[in-house]
Amino acid sequence: MAEQVMDVSSQTETPRLAPRRWMLFVGLALIFGLGLAVRLYDLGDAPLDFHPTRQLHSMLMARGMAYQSLPDVPDWQREMSYQQWKKEGLIEPPVMEWLTAQAYLAAGQVDLRLPRLFSIFFWMLGGAGIFLLAKTLTGPDGGLVGAAYFLVLPYAVLASRAFQPDPLLTAAIIWALWAALRWQMRPSWGRAALAGILCGLAIFIKSTAVFFVGGGLVGLVLAGWGLRRALRDGQVWLAAVLTVLPYALFHIYGVYISGELQSQFSLRFFPQMWLDPVFYLRWNGQIASTVGFEWFLLALLGTFTIKDSRARAMLLGAWVGYFLYGLTLPHHISTHDYYQLPLIPLAALGLAAGAAALFRALRGPRVLVSLAVVGVLLYGLTIKAWDARVSLKRQDYRQEAVFWEKLGERLGRDRAVVGLTQDYGFRLSYWGWVDTTNWMTSGDFSYRELAGQEFDMRALFDEVTAGKDLFVVTLLGELDHQPELKKILDENYRLIESSGDVLIYDLKQAP
């Protein structure tokens, strides 16, 4: 195969932000230093600041893994933590949970700062990938702009501290696209293998990466080789096999051997939502609250300013993958804001390209223009980093752990509990060491009714509470949203505790 070289950065004029090499290093140090500093702020707060249900899922799994080997753990906690771990089942390969468990073992204790540090590290690693990709596509100015957006976007600051696989997923997608573009720039068997390995790793971490990695690869291969040539190229086949193989093996294990993945494919696909205008409005709202709607539009348009057709096709393919991703998972894309996280690198790269094109079009004395560009970027960095810090400072969840510990002590470990509590009972399970059978919220009922399920409330109540001792309510407003449940509890069972935060019904005693 003939060597192909793509030197996109040579298309740019003298950089406006960093006309000298030392300025580039200073700019990178400032951007990455600020991005890291704001993420380390209030590191010890309980990880309830971002989608606590998802984080508690990982917290329970990691603790269960670690407690099987940690010394000086009471036998009852070792056994209960194992049961809690296994009860969570598989959603995706527990990479973050396993890494965290190993860190717990190395530290000799469970320390919830450790998974935060892992997530922060992976996001910062993704920032390095954004800089390299954007620099290749647009030059150093674009690299700095892309990295700045990726690292100080307030939503990204919050999300990148969360104990869940998505920060690692986002970084893996970025580096997969970097490796794929590098392979296209100068094809070789080694680069094809690296691209396939990194693409396969991204999909293995979380299968939704297939939309972004697959879309990018399709665009790149079609623009670089063409369909006929690609089908005859051994390197393309090598990359394709390595991309598909890791998750294919995991899927076979999870579905056909352990069976733990079978339930993950239900309550996902709702094509009837495509015809509902509210779905698109909610999706738009998720975009606006995460990447910023104006930035989203500018980034999409900025993608078309990339001069190299192959690089442009790769990024456009990833954009197409994003829209297919949203249509495939319409409920989640319109209700779970962290499903927008893989959009952030696409927005960063699109904005990098658009900014580089804008900088090339600026006219005036070079020094004055450079000062104006640097001033605008510094102002934006400072304001966004401060906004992120304010969001972190305004939240303090340290007392949450204390509340659930005390509630767990009052309930006791030997009581069988049904709970209408925060995060499906995970807070009570984690800090209170009380496993609960979850009673669904009104939102959960609506979600399942969307899938065609129907419920007889009395029959469901009898089924869920069979053999149980207590019904605990900490979502007091949610109980008011389920008047039939409230009527069943008030008319048939004794209320043994009523405080401002908790209602406890004795399922063994009449009122």
Automatic annotation (TrEMBL):
Keyword check for Cytoplasm, yes or no: no
Which Gene Ontology BP annotations are present?
Answer: lipopolysaccharide biosynthetic process
Keywords, alphabetical? Cell membrane, Glycosyltransferase, Membrane, Transferase, Transmembrane, Transmembrane helix
* InterPro entries for this protein: LipidA_mod_glycosyltrf_83, RgtA/B/C-like
Domain Glycosyltransferase RgtA/B/C/D-like, which positions? 92-247
Q: Where in the cell is it found?
A: Cell membrane
Q: Where are its TM segments located?
A: 22-41, 117-137, 143-160, 167-185, 191-224, 236-259, 279-301, 313-333, 339-359, 366-386
| Membrane topology per record | Multi-pass membrane protein
Give a Gene Ontology cellular component term annotated to this protein. plasma membrane
Would you say which domain of life the source belongs to?
A: Bacteria
Record Pfam families: PMT_2
A GO term, aspect molecular function: pentosyltransferase activity
Descriptive protein name: Glycosyltransferase RgtA/B/C/D-like domain-containing protein
Q: Which organism is it from?
A: Levilinea saccharolytica
